Amino acid sequence: MTAVEVSDFAGWRTAARHLLASDTPPDQVLWTPGLFSGETEAGAATQTTTTVPKEFLQTAKTVALHRDDRKWPLLYRVLYRLTHGERSLLKIDIDDDTRELNLMEKAITRDMHKMKAFVRFRRVQGAEPEEFVAWHRPDHLIVEALAPWFADRFGAMRWTILTPDRSAYWDTNELRFGPGVPRSEAPPADELEDLWRDYYASIFNPARVKVKAMKAEMPVRHWATLPEAQLISSLLAKADTRVNQMATSQKTSAAPFVPATRSISELQIAAPNCRGCELYEHATQVVFGEGPSDAKVVMVGEQPGDEEDMKGHPFIGPAGRLLSKAMHESGLDREKIYVTNAVKHFKFIERGKRRIHAKPTGIEISACRPWLEAELASIEPELIVCLGATAAQALMGREFRVTTDRGKFFPHRWGKELVATIHPSAILRAQERAEEEYALFVKDLQLIAARVAELDKAS
Ligand code: SF4
Q1: Reported pTM
Q2: Are 205 and 275 spatial neighbours (Cβ–Cβ below 8 Å)?
Q3: Structural domains of the chain sorted by starting position, each given as residue range(s) with its CATH number in brackets
Q4: Which of 26, 84, 155, 368 could form a disulfide with 77 if both were Cys (CB 3.0 to 4.6 A apart)?
């Protein structure tokens, strides 16, 4: 019997390679949880060159995050079988090992989904610069795997996620990890927690109350750390009255979900919970504005595209790349500009596997306007640049025509001035006129760069 001490995926992989090289059958290996990675009694064996299906490696990485230590022998058993004549094992769902592997993988995926949904950051009182902290109790060992997602999503915030197993810290530049902490060491409630409570009260839709489904989506064990969960019983008690009220005043608006704050970070945290219109139901995630919170220029587009929807950042798809190129050629520094959209969720229609952009309706645009107004009120830009008719009409009214008013500077309540030009996606659609349209677009941006310099001088 070969004894193997293993604590993480890297350690398991090293051990598994050595065991395969010496053709050690799974029933001859005793896997024990250890503190160190990669140190095994099988370490002296020569490494194997056996190839393993890619999908198994990905699954193995995920399953390694499971809390149950039976994962290590299971992973080796599956690996051994895959490399000993059962190459299609992963396709046989009824096989006991495959089924257990799939169940473990699903449990991790679900736990990650819950952590993304239930981590609630609270502002640390008195911290300067702003610091946010959250306490969460995941079922599995997912903190390090998921921390990059939070760093990407909340990249401009300094935050700490405390869990009983590990803690993750992001300083807007680098991720660091430390030991876990008990619930008692999480900081006390503060106003951000009240904010979350207000929120939940405002998004709570009594017409859709299904307690069983609610418990499945928001497991009771998480309720202790979710400020909004404390409201559930009183909200349920008032549900009938609210249903009646809602029946008489059905409105579509983001307003109830927009917190009364001038902090872009708080707006950004709040936006994923918006249910102001139906667009959130099919999109992957909300795509909020990004850029410096004291930007002099705010650029407003229509809505996120397919790539933005998948990755959660505005203007990173083909139109965004074209915009960056044109900005660069016009002397505008994208790093200094806040970019956002009039509508924060991707609207599309499905054609086979493709998701085709669909224009948001006037109702959806005005439903989402409270977010745009909150961003503008927070940033107080000198110049608002509307890219395309949707953005321009959201801020200038439905009579505004980009074709006739393009490149003209108008005074505006949310900035000193507002100017409109075309959306870069119009250039991508222009086919044989694309070059000409691009040149005109760069010309508009040059005008804008010159106007920014003038406004700078005057201020
Ligand atoms: S599109 Fe705007 S209003 Fe509609 S759900 Fe998304 S964020 Fe809310």
Answers
A1: 0.52
A2: yes
A3: 2-114 (no CATH), 119-185 (no CATH), 191-248 (no CATH), 260-458 (3.40.470.10)
A4: 26
